[in-house]
Amino acid sequence: MGETGKYLGIVAGVMFASLLIIQQLSTLIGILTQTYSGITAVHADIWVMDAKVKSIDESKPMTDGQLGRVRSVEGVAWAVPLYKGSISARLENGDTVVATLYGLDDTTFIGGPAQMVQGSLADLRNSDSVIVDEMSAMDRLAHVAADGTRLPLKLGDTLELNDHRVRVVGLCKVGRGFQSLAVVYTTYNRALSIAPTQRKNLSYILAAAQGGKTPEEVAGKIARVTGLGAYSSQQFIDKTLHYFLTETSIVINFGLSVVVAFLVGTLIAGQTFYNFTMDNLRHFGALKAMGANDRMILSMILLQAGLVGFLGYGLGTGLACLAGLAGQDSVITFSLPWYVLLGAGLAVVGISGISALLSLRKVIKLEPGVVFRG
Amino acid sequence: MQKTTTNVVECRSVKKTFGTGPSEVQALRGIDISVQGGEVMMFVGPSGCGKTTLISVIAGVLDATDGECRVFGESMQEMSNDQRTRYRGKNIGFVFQQFNLIPSLTLKENVAIPLLINGMSYNQAVARGEETLGRVGLLDRANDRPTQLSGGQQQRVAIARAIVHSPRLVVCDEPTSALDHTTGQHIVELLREVAAGDGRALIVVTHDSRIFQYADRIARMDDGRIQSIYDSFQEMADAERVLQ
Predict the structure, then answer these.
(1) I need a surface site. Which of A174, A243, B161, B163 has the fewest CB within 10 A?
(2) Of B89, B97, B114, which is closest to A374 when you measure between CB atoms?
(3) Which of B59, B98, B118 faces A289 most closely, judged by CB atoms?
(4) ipTM
């Protein structure tokens, strides 16, 4: 009923609630996706690890002898070692950067990056060679010139990893990990020579199932025979996700943001909608006097609430997508699966519904006679 | 105006009380009145005398505490809420003191509201609304919005809205109080012309003595009662001159 400013206020309330809900949930999904990006990047059927491992970021080294035990399990087509550990990279200017060092099977390079930007995996056969991720090469691992400008790491440049000088032979793309560390790939044996000496070094064993057997079946068999933890890729993703969802406060923190967004949206939209209705009570009274029944009034209010909800949701979703696109090549994580849109849509239905209900009671109880009382 | 013997409105011993106990207010203390077809009836009197309460009861937007009010022989108080709403929508037109036009709708859409409420399709209703705007001299403003009009023009739109569905009774609450003298007179002339006649009746509640001359009968109210009913403004003027 007129009053464009108030109408836009309601739309804005729903829009900001949608934007916040979608943005927070998409960031949460993005972060959760990062928690298992180390698994999806490797393309292995089966992951074998210490039975106490809870997530990809928490490897507990095994003895090298475990590799032979896994290879001997019936149904295993092949099994290769994978080293994964943190290492300190020293830059030319003396700064140190923490990186994740992957040591790949010296022969097959299984577990290596799926997409090379420069160089090739085979270049790891050169002595002291490493492959680094492109984003870190341009930023964290870049050389800093005397005037402060950053010179991206390029092929042939050297790095110092734990007092070992290595040469960059390739640049690759990697999915950003949960800790957003620089990623360095080398061979398994070279990784062991670079990394601090430990009694046990084998972080993971990557394996494949023989034809006719599912990874789950073979993983189950490996676990039974060796007593190690063995999972298909999907099982390991689920296990990692479960760890982050239950053992960390990520979900609570983001969940609180979503709840606050919902409450603020409801408060803004509900209050404005209510004021809007109160200011127009005489019109509703007039409509009732002229013969509009409660069903018609109910339909009108729900239609208005639905319309502002739809507009606010559309605008909020659009803005959230724009924000996601804007941060696509940055460290900001954003993942917008259909169920986030559905969830936000349901939240908006809730916000609009509550807003409408607040007003509805007042309007339904309104005596049409009020219209004659000035 | 050709009057018929059919009673459009017939109220018997109508009482209305608001509140209870010490805060009880008796707004109507036993009203007996009938309004005939083709008649323009004005209820006049000081503020708080019960005029508005009485037309609210007559129009079925307020229940009487006691007594009975029949409109075209039907007691709306005996109807269910839905039936009463439907009955009101079909048979009664309303003109309000503050016009109550919806600002976001065009004039023709505002006028079409009673038809839309009664279930007519949008296109038909708006076409009829436009036609009715022509009857009140505002055809050329059909696509304007209420805020673009003067007070007098807005009241003319409200009159068009009150008559668009050809109701048999039109009730007006202080239709001229927000208007200047000349505009007020034009509005009442228009109301007489379009809302009364052919068995239809017009009831006007007003303070505005300048429009009394347009009434067929005038009921003077005070303290919740009808003090006198006059057959013309002249009769009322004469009677009240004698009293003074």
Answers:
(1) A243
(2) B97
(3) B59
(4) 0.86
